[in-house]
């Protein structure tokens, strides 16, 4: 079996991490040749690819870049690739390939993060392309329901994300006091709702002034991130809230953190949440996407309403005030992630889908 994962870039995002993790996991299977193509640009995740993975970067300059499409076609032809596993917006270029190479099979992986706002999703081109897909994989139940009603693909499956521990050399040193660090692992995007997080943390330090908040994720240097930084300054939190940008050594960062949080107003199934769980950290999430599928409130973590700073602050203070309970949350969340969101569980489901479409 020869499979090519296709993703826009290798920047540090959830869909990108999944594409790399799937590529690496497949490369360890005895009966699979695994490849990955970054269509637009590379990124820090390139260094995470296994040495046995076949790799191509197209440096595509526009949506309809004929030269890049030809290079991809030739790569697929030269390697006798049978399955094109396209992630997110990469569905368009693989559909073009399908028109000229009808025997290839397309699997489209929907990582859409704004799952709370699916009614606003623009999908005309996706709807047209979907008739060429053999299978659609969705990271949440709501995305599966949407695909079944909006796309032409007959076979649609919900397959939860999985997580693996990275082996990147430690390089990041978090500021603040040991034992009193809160981690927020998310790119600086509006759906991640840093404003609710910062407002909540401002209440936390009124009762626990030694705690610090550490935000790890890509700064796109746009209006949103500028407003976030301005808000931190306005609340005079510069000595309590720190930003690190994109980082590769996530496991190392998690080892220095004591409480983990996601304050999103919309999500699919965030990789960050699974990374928190794998590290056994007490975690608070907002009730969006499939977060509540992973965390059962007051059992293996805390689930609070989205865009509710008071509830988020109370959740953090609850964990700060009860170390035994916090430790139990982390232990049970780690068990949940290892049992239900492991690489082995995911790859077994994925290869079943691959084999089915190859035998059609």
Automatic annotation (TrEMBL):
It comes from Pontimicrobium aquaticum. This is Glycosyltransferase. Residues 13-163 form the Glycosyltransferase subfamily 4-like N-terminal domain. The keyword Transferase applies. Keywords: Transferase. One of its GO terms (molecular function) is glycosyltransferase activity. Residues 177-329 form the Glycosyl transferase family domain.
